Structures are given as structure tokens and as C-alpha cells.
């Protein structure tokens, strides 16, 4: 057990949870805009309105009786993802990448029956995965076919890019790679690999798993140092536009790179986690305070992205 | 940015109100800040003896009325066959015993419990008394005039005159004039007469010297003079102004101490003992219905009181939870579940509570794994769990009872619904994050619960929260202040340590 003095943390500009909650989430995220991001269905519809690309929505399961004859609708799809609309922390997301006979194949490779999927849907509707256990709906959307850049970098699951957007400025980014340990999930505390990304270039900076630095992907043994996200600026633009869309000052945007459709917004998070600092080896606080001091924020997403690129590059703040 | 001034004002106000009310109630009502504090009480018994003359009897005894330096806690009269009542008029309190037919020796008792009070002053008097007329025999009149003149020469106020007069009369070698006056009268009576003659309203009152375990005591006279707006007491044996601490003014003014109609050979004697009483009990009986007393919950029926005893402990538990989550950063399952468990521990005792809680949750988890295969809807699954938990609890109680633990029954204090939800959450946690997280969160909850329990079971916290509920305002202020804490959690000092250590390397 080793502890570090709080002054050292403050000097490194680390954002703590209390500070995040009071100074940023509490101050910049108005409660009434939360439902837009807590409900993935609402986020999706809103994103379509604002021209922000998201994975295609196939259909929504809203009532229990729809589950009884769900097979036909699911059989028509090759791969799909079932998500609880109000799930949190990646809970309750079931990704099916194909079929073998009557069985469905999960992203981890294990097979599940239609009964398992029905139970999953039932649980979802009953609110097992939603915040506070409220009744929920399940959304079924297209599978992401991730870009070749990530080939070999992700064991099961889709690598996604988390960009923290503060007052519309992208301030910090990381790539999250699912591992065997994280069971295909992209959450760092569950064992996913986080790769800090240079805001200016999309170049990988350093990688961590379970808070300790690593250089190779634990499952595929691919070197993580040379990762560079293609089409980086567009991704920043997409993230930056989420500010106008959601009206939330401090958000985490989860973006995936689809092989054919480009950057796609997966979901927004009004309470983004703090591990991104560990993956970047850098504290968020100096960047957030810098943005806070801007008197006249840029109105166009393009300008904000330019400003962020110029300010927050790897040698910058 | 929102101004923080109103916030801190509210916090300061809460702390101020809490502290001030508590202090006021402590001072005014004498509620002790520490539990188990003892206070001294005098139990005084006045015994009236007389011989009845085979006629209706009316005995009337002068009773202490707001004696300076003392307060009467309670009083009773014990006399078989007699009717007793306390009569107040003209600022005099008298106890009256009456009986239609009596014969032989009679004994009446009056008992009072008194405690020392800080209020030393006698009451203000509205009507200015006038000095009484004084009569002396021939030579004494001249001597009296001379003594008064001597005292007046050396004094400027009624108080100093009294002191000077007493000094003259108490002189072990009396002069010619004082010797004449004291020849066939006691000094007290002479003092009273001289004071009245000098135009100072004066009277003789009777005080009781308090000494532990004394019997058959009689009253000793003291002199009271009237100055400005109140009666001042002088001790005629020393000539000092003021009452020595161990003297209780029993009878004030010159009305009689004891009147007995229908009896002869009446006399009154006093016995006393010093007792100790819990200070809390004392303040409750002493100040019932006075001042800030309505703020306390003592006025409620006992049943409600015991409920409040638990309720008022809740803020303390809430503060522990807030502290552990915000400052320490411990993970608990369910925000305030730990307090409810801690409250249950208060009733079951710690070890038994822990054992039964863990065993119920463990059994519940086993059953829950089977339930998850049944593919039930969430609400019905939880309801199933609630019912099963009820059965589990009754089963454990029965087993405990059969094994001879009468305490087995106390398991029922655990909130069933909370246990059911805990099992459900733990089970999902187990499936999603693995047993490690279950142990972390479950252990965290139990740790916070035990901590809250340990704090709440302290006699001091129980005493303070129940007798000074307003102190909870301070806890509220602390909780609000912690809600503004933006520093690091203790757990974050570990979580982010790799980053800082790397920087160094």
C-alpha cells in the first residue's frame, strides 16, 4: 500500500472526483439536459437531428410482448448490438457478431441461444441495467465494423475513443481497447487498455491497463506505441459538435471508427470517468482551467478544434 | 460562478443556532452535556409533633418559598389520616394539615428535595415595607438612641449601617449601652429593634443549617433588612451580609413558623440527608414545562421518545457515510444502506448482527443464483427475494431460539426490503464484475455500518443527540460543508499514485 501526498497530485494537475463533481459537472452540466445523454435513444435521435453520425438504429424493443416474437426480426440481421437505452457503464450491452445455426455468437466467441437473448431483453426492459432500476427500452443497432487500423489491437469488442469535451473544446482523448480481462468491454476499471492520445495528432502517447503502464496489448501482443488514429480531426469535430447538441458543458464522448461510415458517435456521458488522466499520464485540471478562463468561446466547432489542437498538443498544457 | 457567501452564511447560522440552543438549554434547564453526571440534592424532613386535645386539628407550617440559592424539586407530606394542602397567599406558603378527630401524640411530616441553584438573589418586592414601631423601657431607649447614633456616624447606607450595628452588638466586650440592651434580650431581637428604630425596615427570618445526616435540628434566626427594592440577608452570628451557602431560608418574614389549633406542646424539628441524583433526571423533573423545555422530546410519551432516540442518531450515521464516501472514497453498495444496517446493529448487538446479516445475505445469494435461471421479471424477482428473506430471518430466529439464544429474535430488526435489494445488487455485481467487487463493496458497506454503529452506540452520542437534538444542526452543517469538498479522496491518493511516481522517474 503506497500513498501519495495530495499536494503532489495537485501539482500534477490531477482532477479528483469531488472536484469534478462540484466544479465541472455541477457547474456546467444542467440537470435538465441529463436525460438527453442518459437515454441512448434520445441521444441517437438528437444526433440525427444535428447531423452527428451514429450507428444505424434498426429497431427498438419497448414492450415485453414484443420479445415473444423477436426471432424473425433478429434473424434478418447479421450482426447487431442490443443496448439498454438508459444503461450506464457499458452494462447490459450484448454484441452479436454472427450466427451458427440457431445459436448467436457473442463478440467473445461464446454462443448464446435465442432464449438467452430473450432473457437479456426482459431484464433490460425491467430496468436491471438502467440507472436507479427504472423501466427501460432496448435498442438494437447495427454492428460497427471497425477500421483496419485497429486490427490486432482489440481482443473482442470495438475499440472506442473517449474524448472529453469541455465547453465545446476537446481537452483530452484516449483510445479504449477491450481485452480478454475486460470481457469485451471498454471500461478501464474492468480491465480494458487505455491509450492516451495526443489531441493534436491522434498519436498514441502511452498505454495503461489496471492503472499500470504497458507497451504491448496483453492479448494480441501488438505494440501500442505506434497507434495513430486516422481521420483524427474529423473525430475531434464530431466530439466538439456534441456540445451544441447536448448543451452540456462537461461531457465524455464515445466515438468509434467504422470501416465504411467513418467516425460514429456511440454515446455521450455526462459524468465521464477520471481514468483518462492515467492513460494520458497527465492531469486534466490545467486544461480545464485554461478553457474556463476563455472569455469569448469560439462559436464554430472548427475553431474550437483548431484552438484545442494548437493549445493541447503533447508539448503544450 | 455562484457566490458562496449565502452558503457559508447558512452553514455558520446552522452551527451558531445549534450551539446556542444547546448552550441555552444546558444553562437554563441544567441538562448535562455528559451522560451519567450526578448532582447533589438535599432531602429535608420537617417533623411536627404535638399532643391532640380530642378536638379537630388544624396545623399550619410555614414552608420555604423560593429560598435564595436553592430550588425545590418536589415536596410531599406524609401524615396518616390527615388532609394536606399547600396554601399560598401574600407571598407566604404554608402547609396545612387537618383532621376531624384525633387523640394522643401526633406526628406530621413534610419532606422536600432541594438542589442548589445559581439564583442567589431574593425576589423583588413591589410594596415597600415600612419600619415597625419599637418600644423600649426607659433607660434602654436612651441606650438604643446612643448605639444607633454611633453606628450612623460610621455608615452611609442601610447595608453599612447594619454591618456597623452588628459589629457593635457582637463585640465580645460590650460597651455600657450595648451591654444594657443585651442584658435581657437576645442579640437578634435587639438588632431587629434597633434597625427598625433607625428607619430601616427589618425582620427576623429563620434559616436551616444544612449538614449531612443531621437529625432534630432547629432553625436559626437571620436578619433581613430592606434596601432599595429587595430584602437583604445578614447573618447575625457573624455580622456578614449575605447567606452562607449551607443555610436554607425556611421561613421569611415575621409570620409564625408553626400554628396548631386543637393541640398543645407543638414543636417542629428538622432532619436532612444529602443525596445524589442523575443530573439529567433532575433537570427533567425540575424544569418540566419551563422555558426551552418544549424543545426537548422529553415531553412526548415514552414510546415516541424511544423512537426519537433512534431517529436522532440517524444524522450521525449519515455523516459517517458522507465522510467515508466523499473524503475517504470507500465504495459501498447502496448509498445509505450502511446506516440502516448500523441501526439494526444497535438493536441486535454487533457480533450477532454481523453474523446474522452476513449469513442471511450469503444464503440469499445462493437462492438468487437459482432465481436468475427462472427468468423472472425484475420486480417479481425482488419481491420473491423479500419473501424468501422473511422466511430466512424467521428460520434463523427459530434456530437461534432452539439453541438457546434468546437474542435470536432480534434479527427481525433488519430491514427486509433493504436486505432483499442488497442481495439483488450483490448478485448482479457478482455476475458482472466478479466476486472481488462483491467483497469490496459488501465489505465497504459493512465497514461503514460498523463504524457508524460504533459511533452511534457511544453513550455520549446517544445522550447528546437525544437531549440536545439541536446539535444535529451542526452535523447538518458539517454534511453540507463536506458536500463542497473538492479536494482529493483518500482513495485517489492511491489510484493516481502511478502518475506522480512516473513523473519523477
In short:
The complex is a heterodimer of chains A (317) and B (505). Chain A has 11 helices and 13 strands.
Outline the fold blueprint.
The complex is a heterodimer of chains A (317) and B (505).
Chain A: H1 6-11, H2 17-28, H3 34-38, H4 40-49, E1 57-61, H5 64-68, H6 71-75, E2 80-84, E3 94-100, E4 103-106, E5 111-112, H7 114-126, E6 138-142, E7 160-166, E8 169-177, E9 193-197, E10 204-209, E11 212-214, H8 232-246, E12 250-258, E13 262-269, H9 275-280, H10 285-293, H11 301-311
Antiparallel strand pairs in A: 1-6, 2-3, 2-6, 3-4, 4-5, 7-8, 7-12, 8-9, 9-10, 10-11, 12-13
Helix pairs in contact in A: 8-11
Chain B: H1 5-29, E1 38-52, E2 57-63, E3 70-78, E4 83-89, E5 92-99, E6 104-116, H2 138-153, H3 158-170, H4 176-182, H5 187-197, E7 202-209, E8 214-217, E9 220-227, E10 230-235, E11 240-241, E12 247-251, E13 258-261, E14 263-278, H6 279-287, H7 302-311, H8 314-328, H9 337-348, H10 350-373, H11 378-402, H12 416-433, H13 435-457, H14 459-467, H15 471-482, H16 490-495, H17 497-504
Antiparallel strand pairs in B: 1-6, 1-14, 2-5, 2-13, 3-6, 4-5, 7-9, 7-12, 8-14, 9-10, 10-11
Helix pairs in contact in B: 1-15, 2-3, 2-4, 3-5, 8-9, 8-13, 8-15, 9-10, 9-13, 10-11, 10-12, 11-12, 12-13
Alpha-carbon distance between the two ends of chain A: 31 Å
Number of domains of chain A: 2
Q: Mean of residue pLDDT of chain A? A: 88
**Protein chain pair with the most extensive contact, residues per chain:** A-B, 39 and 31 residues
Describe this structure as you would to a colleague.
- The complex is a heterodimer of chains A (317) and B (505).
- With 317 residues, chain A is of the alpha+beta class.
- Chain A has helices at 6-11, 17-28, 34-38, 40-49, 64-68, 71-75, 114-126, 232-246, 275-280, 285-293, 301-311, and strands at residues 57-61, 80-84, 94-100, 103-106, 111-112, 138-142, 160-166, 169-177, 193-197, 204-209, 212-214, 250-258, 262-269.
- In chain A, strand 7 (160-166) and strand 8 (169-177) form a beta hairpin.
- In chain A, helix 8 (232-246) packs across helix 11 (301-311).
- The mean pLDDT of chain A is 88.
- Among the domains of chain B are: 138-250, Roll (C8orf32 fold); 304-469, no CATH class.
- Helix content of chain B is 48%, strand content 22%.
- Chain B contains 17 helices and 14 strands.
- In chain B, helix 10 packs across helix 11 (378-402) and helix 11 (378-402) packs across helix 12 (416-433).
- The longest helix of chain B is centred in the first third of the chain and has 25 residues, at 5-29.
- The relative contact order of chain B is 0.13.
Amino acid at each position: 500500500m503506497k500513498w501519495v501526498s495530495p499536494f503532489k497530485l495537485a501539482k500534477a494537475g490531477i482532477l479528483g472526483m469531488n472536484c469534478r463533481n462540484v466544479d465541472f459537472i455541477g457547474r456546467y452540466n444542467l440537470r435538465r439536459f441529463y436525460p438527453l445523454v442518459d437515454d441512448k435513444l434520445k441521444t441517437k435521435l438528437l444526433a440525427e437531428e444535428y447531423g452527428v453520425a451514429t450507428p444505424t438504429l434498426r429497431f427498438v424493443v419497448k414492450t415485453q410482448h414484443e420479445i415473444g416474437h423477436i426471432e424473425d426480426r433478429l434473424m434478418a440481421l447479421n450482426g447487431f448490438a442490443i443496448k439498454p437505452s438508459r444503461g450506464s457503464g457499458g452494462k447490459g450491452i450484448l454484441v452479436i457478431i454472427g450466427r451458427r445455426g440457431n445459436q448467436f455468437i457473442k463478440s467473445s466467441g461464446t454462443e448464446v441461444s435465442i432464449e438467452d437473448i430473450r432473457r437479456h431483453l426482459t431484464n433490460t426492459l425491467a430496468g436491471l441495467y438502467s440507472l436507479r432500476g427504472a423501466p427501460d427500452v432496448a435498442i438494437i443497432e447495427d454492428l460497427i465494423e471497425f477500421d483496419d487500423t485497429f486490427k490486432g489491437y482489440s481482443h473482442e469488442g470495438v475499440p472506442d475513443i473517449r474524448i472529453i469535451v469541455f465547453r465545446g473544446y476537446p481537452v483530452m482523448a484516449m483510445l479504449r481497447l477491450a481485452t480478454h480481462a475486460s470481457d469485451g468491454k471498454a471500461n478501464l476499471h474492468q480491465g480494458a487498455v487505455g491509450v492516451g492520445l495526443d489531441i493534436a495528432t491522434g498519436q498514441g502517447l502511452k498505454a495503461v491497463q489496471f492503472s499500470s503502464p504497458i507497451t504491448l496489448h496483453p492479448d494480441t501482443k501488438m505494440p501500442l506505441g505506434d497507434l495513430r488514429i486516422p481521420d483524427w480531426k474529423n473525430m475531434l469535430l464530431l466530439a466538439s459538435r456534441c456540445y451544441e447538441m447536448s448543451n452540456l458543458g462537461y461531457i465524455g464522448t464515445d466515438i468509434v471508427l467504422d470501416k465504411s461510415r467513418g467516425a460514429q458517435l456511440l454515446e455521450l456521458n455526462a459524468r465521464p470517468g477520471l481514468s483518462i488522466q492515467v492513460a494520458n499520464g497527465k492531469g486534466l485540471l490545467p486544461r480545464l482551467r485554461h478553457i474556463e478562463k476563455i472569455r469569448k468561446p469560439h462559436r464554430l466547432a472548427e475553431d474550437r478544434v483548431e484552438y484545442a489542437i494548437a493549445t493541447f498538443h503533447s508539448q503544450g498544457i | 460562478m455562484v457566490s458562496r457567501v449565502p452558503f457559508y452564511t447558512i452553514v455558520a447560522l446552522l452551527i451558531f443556532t445549534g450551539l446556542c440552543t444547546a448552550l441555552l438549554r444546558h444553562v437554563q434547564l441544567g441538562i448535562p452535556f455528559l451522560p451519567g453526571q450526578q448532582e447533589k440534592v438535599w432531602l429535608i424532613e420537617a417533623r411536627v409533633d404535638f399532643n391532640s386535645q380530642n378536638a379537630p386539628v388544624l396545623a399550619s407550617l410555614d414552608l420555604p418559598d423560593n429560598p435564595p440559592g436553592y430550588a425545590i424539586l418536589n415536596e410531599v407530606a406524609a401524615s396518616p389520616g390527615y388532609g394536606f394542602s399547600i396554601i399560598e397567599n401574600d407571598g407566604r406558603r404554608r402547609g396545612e394539615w387537618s383532621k376531624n378527630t384525633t387523640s394522643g401524640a401526633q406526628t406530621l411530616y413534610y419532606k422536600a428535595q432541594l438542589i442548589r441553584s445559581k439564583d442567589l438573589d431574593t425576589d423583588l418586592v413591589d410594596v415597600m415595607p415600612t419600619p415597625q414601631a419599637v418600644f423600649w423601657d426607659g433607660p434602654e431607649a436612651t441606650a438604643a438612641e446612643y448605639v444607633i447614633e454611633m453606628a450612623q456616624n460610621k455608615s452611609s447606607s442601610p447595608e453599612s449601617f447594619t454591618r456597623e450595628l452588628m459589629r457593635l452588638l457582637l463585640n465580645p466586650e460590650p460597651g455600657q449601652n450595648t451591654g444594657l440592651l443585651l442584658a435581657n434580650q437576645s442579640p437578634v431581637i435587639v438588632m431587629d429593634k434597633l434597625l427598625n428604630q433607625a428607619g430601616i425596615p427589618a425582620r427576623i427570618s429563620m434559616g436551616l443549617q444544612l449538614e449531612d445526616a443531621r437529625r432534630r435540628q432547629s432553625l436559626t434566626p437571620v436578619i433581613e433588612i430592606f434596601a432599595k427594592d429587595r430584602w437583604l440577608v445578614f447573618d447575625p452570628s457573624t455580622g456578614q451580609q449575605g447567606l452562607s451557602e449551607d443555610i436554607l431560608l425556611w421561613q421569611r418574614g415575621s409570620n409564625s413558623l408553626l400554628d396548631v389549633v386543637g393541640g398543645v406542646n407543638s414543636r417542629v424539628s428538622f432532619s436532612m440527608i444529602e443525596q445524589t441524583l442523575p443530573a439529567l433526571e433532575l433537570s427533567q423533573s425540575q424544569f418540566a414545562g419551563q422555558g426551552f423545555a418544549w424543545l426537548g422530546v422529553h415531553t412526548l410519551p415514552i414510546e415516541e421518545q424511544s423512537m426519537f432516540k433512534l431517529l436522532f442518531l440517524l444524522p450521525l450515521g449519515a455523516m459517517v457515510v458522507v465522510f467515508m464516501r466523499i473524503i475517504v472514497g470507500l465504495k459501498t453498495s447502496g448509498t445509505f444502506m450502511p446506516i440502516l444496517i448500523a441501526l439494526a446493529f444497535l438493536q441486535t448487538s454487533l457480533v450477532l448482527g454481523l453474523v446474522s446479516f452476513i449469513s442471511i445475505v450469503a444464503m440469499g445469494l445462493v437462492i438468487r443464483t437459482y432465481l436468475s435461471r427462472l427468468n423472472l421479471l425484475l420486480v417479481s424477482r425482488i419481491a420473491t427475494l423479500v419473501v424468501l428473506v422473511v422466511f430466512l430471518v424467521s428460520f434463523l430466529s427459530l434456530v437461534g431460539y432452539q439453541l438457546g439464544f434468546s437474542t435470536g429474535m432480534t434479527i427481525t430488526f433488519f430491514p427486509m426490503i433493504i436486505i432483499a435489494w442488497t442481495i439483488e445488487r450483490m448478485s448482479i455485481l457478482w455476475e458482472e464484475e466478479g466476486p472481488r467487487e462483491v467483497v469490496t463493496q459488501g465489505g465497504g458497506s459493512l465497514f461503514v455500518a460498523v463504524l457508524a454503529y460504533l459511533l452511534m452506540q457511544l453513550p455520549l452520542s446517544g445522550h447528546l443527540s437525544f437531549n440536545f437534538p439541536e446539535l444535529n444542526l451542526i452535523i447538518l452543517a458539517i454534511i453540507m460543508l463536506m458536500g463542497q469538498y473538492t479536494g482529493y479522496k483518500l482513495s485517489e491518493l492511491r489510484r493516481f499514485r502511478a502518475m506522480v511516481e512516473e513523473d519523477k522517474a
